[in-house]
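seq as requested:
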Amino acid sequence: MKRASDHLGQSGPFYKQISGYQVRDNQLALCDAIDDAIESKKTLIAEAGTGIGKTFAYLVPALLSGKKIIISTGTRHLQDQLFHTDLPRVIKALSVQSTSALLKGRSNYLCLHRLKLAPHLGFINRETRSLLTEVDEWSKLTRSGDVAELTSLAEDSYVWPMVTSTAENCLGGECDSWEKCFIVNARKEAQAADVVVINHHLLLADMTLKNEGFAELLPNADAFIIDEAHQLYDVAARFFGNTVSSRQLISLVRDTVAEQVNDASDMVELRDYAEALEKAARDFRITLGEAGLREAWLKVQNKPAVKQSLESLATTLEDLIAALKTAAERARGLEQCYERAQNIM
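struct tokens:
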């Protein structure tokens, strides 16, 4: 009976099709071990040295199995490389009829509702307006909505948080762009595909939702392949930790102002409370010290200036929550802001 590793050997398609291809005994052994684990539905933990070709070693048995496989990578860059380069190459070499899908977290997809709100997210200068126009033009051309497509904007551009959603500000089925939603369509494609490429952060997000009894983000699968599994610990530490950042507070402020302009233009006090919170957040950040400085909270929490600044921040947040409670009935967007503010508190 032909083993999966035979396809990677001297008689296989890779040896014939790829110039300079070398057969590696360790790669063949890893390939067969992964093949056996998939077929027997057992867990395999394997460590592969640099350069033995572990990507091909797991893609070959995954594609030949005919099963639903989810592959998780350590970073989005590796995810893109695997989906756009390695996976098509192996599918072509094996001549298999296998469908694949790329699925990322929601912040990696353009949100059409947020794009419409963006011009109202505080003061918009000429540069920002130009960038938003560029995103708007791209939105009419893209099929996936994956922000990685628009390479003219830096990955860390300040514009992306303005036009992508989070779990806190997504309107879900109540959104007027739900039928055209890029993340919804990406999840539908993942449901239908034979092989789905994700990243560790999305894997952990799905695990959390399932444990809490909510609907999952990922489709059911026959096998999971966790590439760069040693990175899971650090990703999990960041993912499951509780944090409140000034960026999170300022994002809430700007969303509140944008929603107020759209659906509660008569409630000018809502903008005042929001702007007061932004000032308090910035003041608190200054009180903590220089940017980039890291200190244990236990070490700084009892400093008089920090305590006073934190109390002021909490008070202004409480004031905004009270105002949002009244405004929440006006529109779903304002209700979302109210819920987010409560969760931060």
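The first strand starts at residue 69 and ends at 73.
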